[in-house]
Write a structure and sequence with these properties.
By secondary structure, this protein is of the alpha+beta class. It has helices at about 1-20, 40-55, 90, 165-175, 185-195, 210-220, and strands at about 30, 40, 60-65, 80-85, 100-105, 110-115, 120-125, 130-135, 135-140, 150-155, 180, 200-205, 225, 240-245. It contains 6 helices and 14 strands. The longest helix has 19 residues, at about 1-20.
């Protein structure tokens, strides 16, 4: 099945070329429901390509993507769960911190993950029980305690009622850590934990396509991902997420 990972990787890399050569000379942005929630013609273009090309790679898999109202059954057989551009607000501003994320579930559980940052040409991949890789080199989470670690976080920007709690929680973890960062893409943040570049990531609410790929990459790299309530993350509905290298953390109780 490693050839399946390579086929998915090839499709995702081609989508990365679309990102890198985006035409910014005309208006290409519209808004979705929620504060600061954007979609571009490239989100839709990449999702259409992913849906078409991944169907060739694995025809029996259902497809769940961010940019369409799709309600496929992800619990039986294979299911692709994709985010065509994670970090769209970054993409709109040409901040060069956006990724393409493709998770493949098998009977509702993470099986393969591919996350690609075309701006740095960094391809994160993993397959269940086969380890995690960055550009085909094995990766592992760091062994640093949180006191020597970097905290990454998402602000739940589409849910204004959660903003204060998100920053209060960020302060809570910051006080236990070396420093704090905010990239604007959860899929990348989880991969940064997997590759040992940071030690903790959290966000109060995320959609499954934000973490479906990163989840298997992180766990195969030796890390841990769950909800902030200490339960397993869900792939058929949104949930909170905390991802770590396994370091000891004083939980937030605010």
């Amino acid at each position: 099945m490693n050839c399946l990972v390579e086929q998915i990787e090839k499709v995702v890399r081609e989508c990365g070329e679309i990102l890198l050569h985006a035409d910014r000379t005309s208006s290409f942005v519209s808004s979705k429901e929620g504060h600061g929630n954007f979609v571009t013609v490239y989100d839709k273009k990449i999702q259409e390509k992913l849906q078409k090309d991944l169907a060739v790679v694995l025809s029996e898999a259902v497809f769940v993507g961010e940019e369409e109202d799709m309600h496929a059954d992800i619990h039986n057989g294979y299911a692709f769960v994709v985010d065509p551009i994670d970090g769209t607000a970054n993409f709109v501003r040409d901040l060069k911190a956006s990724v393409i994320s493709v998770g493949l579930l098998k009977d509702g559980q993470p099986y393969i993950g591919v996350v690609y940052n075309p701006y740095l040409d960094e391809m994160y991949t993993a397959k269940k029980d086969c380890g995690a890789f960055l550009n085909k080199k094995p990766i592992k989470v760091s062994d640093k305690p949180l006191s020597e670690g970097i905290v990454l976080f998402g602000t739940a920007p589409y849910y204004k009622e959660l903003n204060d709690k998100a920053f209060d929680m960020a302060h809570h973890y910051f006080k236990q850590a070396l420093d704090l960062r905010r990239t604007g893409t959860a899929a990348l943040d989880i991969c940064l934990i997997a590759s040992g570049r940071a030690e903790l990531f959290f966000e109060l609410i995320l959609q499954p396509w934000d973490y479906a790929a990163g989840c298997i990459i992180l766990t195969e790299a030796g890390g841990k991902i769950e909800t902030l309530e200490g339960t397993s993350v869900t792939f058929d509905k949104p949930c909170s997420v905390i991802a770590t290298n396994g370091c000891k953390v004083v939980p937030y109780k605010g």
